[in-house]
Amino acid sequence: MAILEKVMQMKEQGMSEDQIVQSLRQEGIPPKDIEESLSQSKIKYAINPESMQNMGEQPQEFRGDQDYSRSSFQEYSEEAPTPEGAEQMQAPSREYFPEYNAQSMYQEYQSPQPFDIETVNEMIEQAIEEKTESLKKEIISFTRFKENTFIELDEIKKRLDKLENIIGELQISILRKLGEYGNDIHSISREMQATQNTFSKIIDPLTDNIRELREISESIKPSSLKPSSHHPQERQPEKHQEKPVKRSKDDFESFLR
């Protein structure tokens, strides 16, 4: 059992502080622990005055018993015979009982001493600690939540920065590829233009030569078909002469292409 609980039980039984101290010392408890337990019990009784009222009811009963014992003792002392031997035997008892009753009853039923400043301060501090304990717990939990929130926000910020860097690199690589494709297309178009120019340079003289040969062949055909003067002209059936279809230079060039 704790020292404080023992002190509380002894006070509930109506024991004084001196009796409590003596009984606890007999049990081998250090004086420092006894004083601390007494001060804590005072603080608890100050916070809960109902317990002090319950304790105040018991000394009145003991006072009644004390008055009854004193009156009975006085009646017995007055009515008893007083021989010399009896006086010698009763003398030490008369000296013993009054001293015991006066000291013990005074210690048990003395008026409560006023609290000192240190005790009052301890009472106030304990009451404040009990009231603010829940508030401290809430503040500690809020502080931890705040710290965890800041840590999570920092991680989210780092991830966003990383995503931004990745997106920027992708954009740069896409633009680089598009630029390479554009350069390739431009070079291919230039090569195609160059080949077209070379073909045109080759085809133009050929078309000119073909045109000249066609003209020569057309000029030679009528002279070869004229009848001779020594032989009678025989009538030959008329043949449908097909007119040569002239193709333009552009059509021939497009055909070759």
What would you say this structure looks like, in words?
- This protein has a domain of 111 residues.
- The chain has 257 residues and is an all-alpha fold.
- The longest helix is centred in the middle third of the chain and has 108 residues.
- The two termini are 117 Å apart.
- It has seven helices and no strands.
Identify the overall geometry.
Answer: rod-shaped
Please tally the helical runs, counting DSSP H or I stretches of 4 or more residues.
7
Radius of gyration computed on alpha carbons = 68 Å
Largest sheet: none
Note the beta-strand portion.
Answer: under 5%
Distance between the termini: 117 Å
Give the overall average pLDDT: 69
Number of strands: 0
In helices, the fraction of residues equals over 70%
Order of helices and strands: HHHHHHH
Unreliable parts: 55-113, 228-249
- What structural class is derived from the secondary structure elements? mainly alpha
Highlighted features:
257 residues, mainly alpha, 7 helices, 0% strand
Topology:
Blueprint: H1 3-12, H2 17-26, H3 31-47, H4 49-79, H5 84-108, H6 117-224, H7 249-256
Helix pairs in contact: 1-3, 2-3, 3-4, 3-6, 6-7
Quick structural summary:
By secondary structure, the protein is mainly alpha-helical. Helices cover 81% and strands 0% of the residues.
